[in-house]
Design goal:
The complex is a heterodimer.
Chain A lengths: L11 H23 L2 H4 L14 H7 L4 H4 L14 H8 L10 H16 L5 E2 L13 H7 L3 H5 L16 H9 L22 H5 L2 H4 L3 H14 L14
Chain B lengths: L9 E2 L2 E2 L6 H5 L6 E2 L2 H5 L2 H8 L14 H19 L9 E2 L15 E9 L5 E9 L2 E7 L12 H10 L9 E5 L5 E5 L2 H17 L5 E5 L5 H13 L4 E4 L6 H11 L3 E5 L6 E5 L10 H12 L10 E6 L4 H5 L2 E4 L5 H11 L5 H8 L9 H13 L4 E5 L5 H13 L7 E5 L2 H4 L2 H13 L5 E5 L3 H4 L6 H10 L4 E6 L4 H4 L3 E4 L8 E4 L5 E4 L12 H8 L6 H12 L4 H11 L14 H9 L12 E6 L12 H4 L8 E2 L4 E3 L1 H6 L13 E9 L2 E9 L7 E5 L28 E15 L1 E2 L17 H7 L3 E6 L5 E5 H7 L65 H10 L6 H5 L8 E7 L8 E7 L8 H5 L5 E3 L5 E3 L4
Parallel strand pairs in B: 10-11, 10-18, 13-14, 13-16, 14-15, 18-19, 19-20, 23-28, 25-27
Antiparallel strand pairs in B: 1-2, 3-33, 5-6, 6-7, 8-9, 8-20, 12-17, 21-22, 23-29, 24-30, 26-27, 26-29, 31-32, 33-34, 35-36
Helix pairs in contact in B: 5-28, 7-20, 8-14, 8-23, 11-13, 12-23, 14-23, 16-18
């Protein structure tokens, strides 16, 4: 009797089952890993006008307070992007000698052009939460003592801003369930060795240093949590309303 | 009828106080409160309807075919695709900060409130505070500093935000061009085009002193517009200026002006009125000062203890209005029979002097009046001189208004509960007479240019004038240049030579005087959308002036306050009020009133072959709100009909007319179509029964039936202006002939019924005084603890209706029992985070939220429903979806009729029903997607995106 199916087909069902299971595992694993904000969002670094506002220079090298430009962040839910007039305060005509230098001047011309035309500069949005996370309140988080760095990464080291954290709901909840490590002292809070902090900014960039001793950070955070009578909400309606 | 008892204790003339059981005593038993005719009759179909949970067809996906569904879904999928496709990454998003000029006081993410005011079409204003986000108005509230609003606002103000963003608005000026083939088309233009054209066009009228020029405007009480009117009259003395409002109360204006000896308007002070007699007037709703009336009325009705006094409201009316429903004693009287009632009361008051003589001479028979009602009212009015008030509605002829003004004067009420203040000429002018003259001039070709601003005479001018036809013909024959300015499309816009787009009050500068004389500025929240111009800017354009609303208003105001004007201007803008500019109150001449009353005559009682009709001016006003979907879906106070305006009559009249009664439990409740003929005009309209209407009387609501409006308003309901006589709101001698056809009516009155539970209960003062105090029963609270209840609490909890005790069906979510964990002393222990401020404390230990609604004060105005809709941006679903019970408003105002009579219920009870955010919410247990969850404070809420 002639064989219709060659002998190797005997193993086919097993290979199919095995292959199918492997494929399924890969698909599930792939979706699990890749269909997440952690994969898609982290590292997002769009091209910005004028090559981008260099936070590394301004916040890092010059040590400017974040609130010099994001001035209403402590009173409003929205973190305001500074008006062109704020940029122009330093970079405008006859403001700083440095910008008379042609090399620097070319880089910052777009500011003066926008100012002269009273036109906005079209910055590209980096951090974006979905609409149904209503009005993510920057002021509430800041006033509770959460450092900018906890959500935005150490912007002072970023020549052009990228997205450091996933901003997923799980990531939000991680902190809401255990907020202590992300709390930094504000002005007036006591220093562990005596004295008080003068300003939040003085501790802002210590967050990275603080990570070297997580136990101390958590202990201090727990103190702050109690002192400020915080209650990081975990109910749905806190954000989705 | 004894007047110390309110309706809940008086049933068909027999007091219920002899009732034996507390159930009957407090009116909680049986069908004492009912919502519709089927509910009252307790038909088998109605019970089926209730028990089915959802009406027939509620599970059908959409009105329309599967193709419609696929079409809609296709668009949805395409939209989703467009949003997600670019690079599998979220779409690039720009942030545009402010530039060199940063607006003062704007903080992105924070709302700002600005004071403004909304001119009311018939005259008067509301003072408002408008919430804006980065320069965009989002919500309208009442201005707490404005004496009319005092923080409250009307349904129209709430809905006005929808009108601002209406996509159907006129977007640019257009002019009519007739091609070589004789076909007319409309060519888009700009305002500069119109300015250039009008400069040339209107200069031609300088030579004729304005002969051949006419203006039709609405009855706004705006000093700036008055100033422009005076300039127009100065430049073109022979031009005609007609201030027309289709809902103007011509009879009252004429009578009050005659009695006061000059143009005057009435201002009520209900806070001083202990006895109020309302004759067919819904003074709590739909009037320029209704908010004031409702507030003063509510203050009387908020009884906190047995010592507090209430005012007493007698109501004789021809429709069942919210005011009638709120009345202590109400009689239903056909409009033609109300004069007889007033005359009977006037005679019974035992007055002497000219007015009594005039009343005696009037040819009005008071033989058929309800003598018990008349005796009680007359006794009460006479006993409360200076603290009583008689008001009369638009359905009544001029002499009744004069008589009532005279009676108020004789009773010493003028200056106490009612005063008369001088009114602007535009407000009290007879616009209908003006239009009648205009129609003739248009027909004869005497008017060459007609400017219509914010009015729609082609729709709502008296139908006998056939004004639309005449205007269209004159335009087609090139005998008339018709310039129409409007926010939205309308019948008049359709035939115009120039279609000019107008602004709403939220985008334009202006000023307005409220009906009580309060002057306020109209301050824009946003630059005009579609570069529209406002009314005053258009008038300035026609006059060849600079069309700048800000300067126009300031130039008029600066004449009023020449000293330190900038300071007073800024203060007025900040407060939203610039003081009361009403003239001194006018006195009432009883002799003048008597002269008018002497010649009075009244008609015979209506019959099934000669009915009375009353025109009701409600939510749609003169038709200008027809394109507002929120208002269209707001149920009518008495009938609960939405998206329609059928004729209303009593159930007995419906039977007498041989019209079929609608089955409210049907999938599509049908009204019977009938041809109504009155005064030579006739129209086909659906007829719908409403309990409490006088027999042989039809109520015809105005404002719907727009032939040309936007997507929402076009073709909704019936155009009852076709029957309305000029200058009157009622007519006699109507005939009704059934067409044998049915018409779908959407009505929410049976949606959400009591299903045997006495959700609404009423108790009158004698019963409250007798049974209000003692603790009478021991029961258990929600978690099983014993509790002593007073009668009041039993009423609240439902025990008197043999309902089981209100014990939770679900265990305490924190410990699986029905009681909370406590220590040996009975104090609460938090098992989760002892010593810490935790959101996991049981509800009774934490903040408890509560809200109560004073049902004694509720007059069923529905503003809460629309305010909730505006605040939460709740969608409308349309007429046919409402029929399936799919209306989405989060607050509904239930309306129950009281008493056992189908035709003559003793009252109407309103009960607003909102989401109560239950601690043990049944919706939470069943929700498959966790869209409804608990907050840390024990209240239930929605997660929108789920």
């Amino acid at each position: 009797m002639s064989t219709i199916f060659p002998k190797w087909t005997n193993g086919l069902p097993f290979h199919m089952v095995g292959g199918g299971m492997t494929a399924l595992t890969l698909v599930v694993g792939g979706v699990w890993y890749y269909f997440t904000p952690a994969f898609w969002e982290v590292g997002y670094m769009p091209k910005q006008p004028g090559g981008g506002f260099n936070h590394q220079i301004h916040a890092g090298k010059l040590g400017m307070d974040c609130r010099y430009c994001h001035s209403q962040i402590e009173v409003s839910a929205e973190a305001n992007i500074p008006a062109v007039s704020v940029c122009n305060g330093c970079h405008g005509e006859n403001k700083l000698q440095k910008f008379e230098n042609p090399q620097h001047k070319a880089k910052t011309d777009f500011i003066r052009e926008a100012y002269a035309a009273d036109a906005p500069i079209e910055w590209h949005r980096v951090h974006k939460l979905p609409d149904y996370v209503r009005n993510f309140p920057h002021s509430v988080h800041l006033n509770a003592g959460v450092s900018c760095i906890s959500c935005h990464g150490n912007v002072a080291r970023m020549p052009v801003v990228w997205q450091q954290e996933s901003l997923s709901m799980g990531w939000c909840l991680d902190c809401h369930r255990n907020p202590e490590p992300n709390l930094v002292p504000r002005a007036g809070d006591p220093k562990p060795g005596g004295g008080v902090y003068e300003d939040m900014m003085t501790r802002l960039f210590d967050v990275e240093k603080m990570k070297e001793d997580p136990a101390a950070v958590a202990a201090q955070g727990a103190l702050l949590y109690e002192k400020r009578k915080l209650a990081a909400p975990e109910n749905c309606g806190a954000c989705h309303y | 009828m004894a007047h110390d008892q309110c309706h809940s204790s008086v049933e068909d003339g027999k007091p219920l106080h002899k009732a034996r059981t507390p159930h009957e005593l407090i009116g909680a038993a049986g069908a004492k409160h009912w919502r519709g005719l089927d509910d009252l009759a307790d038909t088998g179909e109605f019970r089926d309807f209730l028990e089915r949970e959802f009406p027939d067809g509620a599970s059908e996906l959409l009105q329309g075919s599967r193709r419609t569904f696929l079409k809609l879904m296709g668009a949805g999928v395409a939209l989703a695709g467009a949003a997600t496709m670019p690079g599998c990454r979220r779409p690039a998003h720009e942030i545009l900060p402010y530039s060199a000029n940063v607006p003062e006081s704007i903080i992105p993410g924070k709302s700002l409130f600005y004071a403004t005011s909304r001119p009311l079409p018939g005259g008067g204003a509301e003072g408002l505070l408008v919430e804006t986000h980065e320069g965009r108005p989002t919500k309208v509230e009442g201005n707490p500093l404005h004496p009319v609003n005092q923080g409250k606002s009307s349904e129209w103000s709430q809905a006005s935000i929808l009108a601002l963003y209406d996509p159907d608005r006129l977007k640019e000026p257009e002019f009519r061009r007739v091609g070589k083939d004789g076909e007319a088309s409309y060519v888009p233009a700009t305002w500069d085009d119109f300015t250039a054209w009008s400069a040339k066009h209107f200069t031609n009228y300088d030579a004729t002193h304005g002969m051949g020029l006419a203006f039709v405007v609405d009855k706004k009480t705006s000093p700036t517009r008055d100033a422009l009117r005076d300039q127009i009259k100065k430049r073109w003395p022979d031009a005609s200026w007609i201030a027309y409002d289709a809902t103007e109360n011509t009879a009252a204006n004429a009578a009050i002006s005659a009695v006061c000896g000059g143009p005057a308007t009435e201002v009520l002070d209900i806070s001083k009125a202990k006895i109020i007699l309302s004759l067919d007037r819904d003074f709590l709703h739909f009037e320029p000062l209704s908010l004031v009336h409702a507030r003063q009325w509510g203050a009387w009705r908020s009884v906190m203890g047995t010592k507090d006094q209430m005012c007493r409201l007698y109501c004789a009316e021809s429709s069942f209005s919210g005011t009638g429903g709120s009345a202590d004693h109400r009689v239903r009287v056909a409009p033609s029979q109300i004069p007889a009632l007033v005359v009977a009361i006037a005679k019974k008051l035992g007055l002497s002097g000219p007015l009594a003589a005039g009343v005696g001479a009037a040819k009005v028979s008071d033989a058929a009046v309800d003598t018990k009602f008349v005796d009680a009212v007359a006794e009460d009015l006479a006993a409360h001189r200076g603290a009583s008030l008689i008001v009369v509605g638009a359905s009544q002829p001029s002499w009744v208004h004069a008589l009532v003004a005279g009676l108020n004067s004789e009773l010493g009420n003028v200056g106490q509960t009612v005063k008369f203040i001088p009114a602007g000429a535009d407000r009290v002018s007879d616009g209908a007479a003006g239009l009648a003259k205009l129609a003739g001039q248009v027909e004869r070709g005497e008017v060459k240019t007609l400017v219509c601003i914010e009015t729609n005479p082609a729709f709502n001018a008296p139908a006998a004038l056939k004004l639309e036809e005449k205007l269209a013909k004159a335009v087609a024959d090139k005998k008339l240049t018709l310039i129409v300015q409007s926010v939205e499309d309308s019948e008049t816009v359709e035939i115009a030579n120039w279609r000019l787009n107008s602004t709403t009050y939220l985008e334009s500068w202006g000023d307005v005087v409220a009906a009580d004389g309060t002057l306020s500025a109209v301050q824009p929240m946003i630059a005009p959308l579609y570069t529209a111009r406002s009314e005053i800017e258009t008038l300035a354009t026609i006059l060849g002036q600079k069309p700048d609303g800000y300067d126009l208003v300031r130039s008029v105001w600066s004449k009023r306050t020449p000293v330190d004007f900038d300071k007073s201007w800024r203060k007025a803008l900040w407060n939203g009020v610039a003081g009361n500019i009403a003239g001194a109150a006018m006195s009432v001449s009883v002799n003048h009133a008597a002269d008018i009353v002497v010649n009075a005559a009244a008609g015979a009682a209506p019959s099934a072959t000669s009915l009375d009709v009353v025109f009701e001016c409600g939510l749609m006003a003169d038709g200008s709100w027809a394109n507002n979907a929120w208002l269209q879906e707001l149920p009518h106070t008495a009938s609960k009909v939405v998206w329609d305006n059928p004729a209303y009559c009593s159930p007995s009249t419906l039977d007498a007319l041989n019209l079929t009664r609608p089955d409210e439990t049907d999938k599509k409740p049908h009204g019977s179509l009938a041809e109504v003929t009155v005064g030579g005009a006739s129209m086909v309209i659906a007829v719908w029964p409403v309990p409490g209407m006088p027999d042989n009387t039809l109520v015809l609501p105005l404002g719907n039936g727009r032939r040309k409006s936007g997507q929402v308003g076009t073709g909704v309901g019936f155009n009852t202006f076709l029957l309305k006589p000029a200058g009157a709101f009622s007519a006699s001698g109507a005939t009704v002939k059934g067409k044998g056809e049915t018409y779908d009516v959407s009505c929410t009155q049976t949606h959400g019924s009591m299903e045997g539970r006495a959700i609404v209960r009423s108790v009158d003062l004698p019963a409250f005084e007798k049974h209000g105090d003692p603790a009478v029963v021991t029961t258990v609270d929600t978690y099983g603890r014993p509790k002593r209840l007073t009668l009041g609490e039993r009423l609240e909890g439902g025990e008197l209706n043999h309902m089981p005790a209100n014990v939770s069906a679900y265990p305490n979510p924190f410990n699986g029992t029905r009681s909370e964990p406590t220590n040996e002393k009975g104090a609460y222990i938090d098992p989760a985070r002892a010593g810490k401020l935790s959101e996991h404390a049981p509800y009774s230990q934490r903040v408890q939220w509560g809200m109560s609604i004073d049902l004694s004060a509720c007059s069923g105005c529905n503003v809460c429903t629309i305010a909730c809709q505006a605040e939460n941006n709740i969608p409308v679903v349309g007429k046919f979806e409402v029929n399936k019970g799919r209306e989405m408003q989060w607050i509904r105002v239930d309306r129950y009729f009281t008493g056992r009579s189908r035709d003559n219920p003793s009252g109407m009870v309103f009960q607003p029903v909102a989401c109560v955010h239950c601690e043990n919410a049944p919706c939470e247990v069943v929700c498959p997607v966790n869209a409804t969850v608990h907050g840390p404070e024990g209240n239930n809420y929605m997660v929108y995106n789920r």
